Every structure is written in structure tokens, then in C-alpha cells.
Recover the amino acids of this structure.
């Protein structure tokens, strides 16, 4: 799909990766609608790239419905908003678990549910879901986050199969650790030496490629992390042992401390 002249609704557009994605889509000629809770941040970006803003709290099902209804003609949905939801399960309240499920999984599903039928009727459209390598490889301290990101992967793959031949593409993106901006950068976590990172621009380039070439899944991570995720898929117990021995629990504790305020 050529994005020039198409309308693109980007959720999480006030965040690190969402801003990069919005800039890339705007540079490619798309007409952007930027969503997030922080209207001031959305307005600043909208003024820079020439977009409209649609503030919404995606933890509220009514706001999700209203966002979709107000943008029913959307050609491209980038369901990117997400909470880090890091930490051991017992450290979460029930309300925090519900919010992570609402924002990270239910809202993307309901936006797709609301917007896809019109795309199918027009015979063209694209939906991108922002998952994570945590949606392919589970680790201590990411039980809630991984539940949402594995869920997104399954939803995206199945929806892609359902819409095959309709002219509507579906993609899932799997970033590893992204430097310079976004929830990993904000957490201030020190990774083990040699663990590579990628930039927000590499995520936005992958997102654009997913839409233009209708790619099902794209990882945005160094080769070693991609191989780790692949190993986790084919030999989960071995991968879990490797992660534990590499100090996974200590890293998880850093994420929990650095991201607790985003629950
Ligand atoms: N950064 C990474 O290393 C990394 C790696 C793998 C996957 N990801 C995924 O990439 C996506 C973007 O993350 P990021 O790094 O850009 O994080 P971020 O900077 O923390 O941004 C998160 C975005 O989600 C929005 N959001 C959070 N709660 C919301 C709510 N209740 N209603 C509406 N919007 C809400 C935020 O908007 P407001 O604050 O304005 O509400 C913000 O725009 C997420 O799905 C994340 O899981 C990131």
C-alpha cells in the first residue's frame, strides 16, 4: 500500500516510538491523526508535521469506541499505544492488570474491530500492531506485559489470515530495546554489556515497510536478540535457562523500578 494521501490514525503518538512513526508516515505523505492522552504533546507534534489530534484514554472502552467512530474512514491504523506493565505478578493490583490489558490488548482489538469493516468495503487498508520481543520470548518480570504482547501477536496473525485477499493488510512489529526515546529509554535500565539496541527511527522505518510491502511480522532488534526470541519459540525451557543465567532477574528488577510510574 502506498501511504501518500492516505489517512493514518496513530495511537501512542505522544510517546517515543509513536512520534517517530508519525513523522515517518507524514514524510511519506500520509494525513495523520495523532492519539494519546497528553493533548499538549500531540498538539506540538501536529503543528510540526501538519496533523490533527484526537486525544483519548484507551483504558476506557467508551473512549476507544468514540475514537474509532470519529475516524471511521481511516485507511491505516497504527495501534502503537502501550504501557510497560513490567514487574513480578504479585506486585500488581487487579486494577493495574486490567489497565494493561485494556490499553495494550483490548483497545487495539476493538479499534481493528471497528475500523476494518470499512477498509474491507473499500478494498484497501492496513493495520499495524506494536507488539514487542516480549511478545515472542517470556521472561521474569514481564508476565503481565508478555500476556498483552503475546496476545497482540496472536490477534495480528489470525486477523491477517482472516483478511487475506480483502485488500487489507495486517502487520505486527516486534521491537527489542529501543534507545534515545520511549519506555525503555525512560526506564534508565543498564543492559548487560554487548546487548544491542535499535533507534525509534528503525521502528518507524519498519512500520512504513510493513505497510508498503504488507509484511506480516518484523523484528526490530539486533541479531542476537532475534535469535534469542527464535530459540524461545522452539526450545522455551532452554531459552529460559539461558536468560536466567545471563542475569535476567536483576534486569527485570531494574525495569520494575524504572517503569512503575507508568502502570
Ligand atoms: N521503547 C521500547 O524499547 C519498546 C520495545 C518494545 C515494544 N515497545 C512498544 O512500543 C509502543 C510504544 O512505546 P514507547 O516506547 O513509545 O513508550 P512511551 O514513550 O511510554 O509511549 C507510550 C504511548 O502510549 C500512550 N498511552 C499510554 N497509556 C495510554 C492510555 N491509557 N490511553 C491512551 N494512550 C496511552 C502514551 O500516551 P500518553 O502518555 O499521552 O497517554 C504514549 O503515547 C508500546 O506499545 C510498547 O509496548 C516499546
Amino acid at each position: 500500500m502506498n501511504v501518500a494521501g492516505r489517512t493514518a490514525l496513530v495511537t501512542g503518538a505522544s510517546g517515543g516510538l509513536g512520534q517517530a512513526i508519525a513523522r515517518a508516515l507524514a514524510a511519506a505523505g500520509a494525513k495523520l491523526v495523532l492519539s494519546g492522552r497528553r493533548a499538549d504533546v500531540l498538539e506540538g507534534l501536529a503543528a510540526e508535521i501538519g496533523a490533527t489530534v484526537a486525544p483519548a484514554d484507551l483504558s476506557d472502552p467508551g473512549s476507544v469506541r468514540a475514537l474509532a467512530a470519529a475516524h471511521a474512514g481511516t485507511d491505516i491504523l497504527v495501534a502503537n499505544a502501550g504501557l510497560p506493565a513490567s514487574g513480578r505478578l504479585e506486585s500488581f493490583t487487579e486494577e493495574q492488570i486490567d489497565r494493561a490489558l485494556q490499553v495494550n490488548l483490548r483497545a487495539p482489538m476493538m479499534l481493528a474491530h471497528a475500523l476494518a469493516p470499512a477498509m474491507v468495503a473499500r478494498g484497501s487498508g492496513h493495520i499495524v500492531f506494536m507488539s514487542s520481543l516480549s511478545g515472542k520470548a517470556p521472561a521474569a518480570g514481564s508476565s503481565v506485559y508478555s500476556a498483552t504482547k503475546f496476545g497482540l501477536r496472536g490477534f495480528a496473525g489470525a486477523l491477517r489470515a482472516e483478511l487475506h485477499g480483502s485488500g487489507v493488510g495486517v502487520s505486527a512489529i516486534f521491537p527489542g530495546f529501543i534507545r534515545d526515546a520511549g519506555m525503555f529509554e525512560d526506564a534508565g535500565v543498564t543492559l548487560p554489556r554487548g546487548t544491542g539496541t535499535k533507534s525509534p527511527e528503525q521502528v518507524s522505518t519498519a512500520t512504513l515497510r510493513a505497510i508498503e510491502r504488507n509484511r506480516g511480522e518484523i523484528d526490530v532488534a539486533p541479531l542476537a536478540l532475534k535469535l534469542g526470541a527464535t530459540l524461545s519459540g522452539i526450545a522455551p525451557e532452554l531459552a529460559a535457562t539461558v536468560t536466567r543465567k545471563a542475569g535476567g532477574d536483576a534486569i527485570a528488577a531494574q525495569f520494575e523500578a524504572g517503569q512503575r510510574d507508568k502502570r
Summary: Strands lie at 7-10, 31-34, 52-53, 76-79, 125-130, 168-175, 217-220. The first strand starts at residue 7 and ends at 10. The chain has ten helices and seven strands.
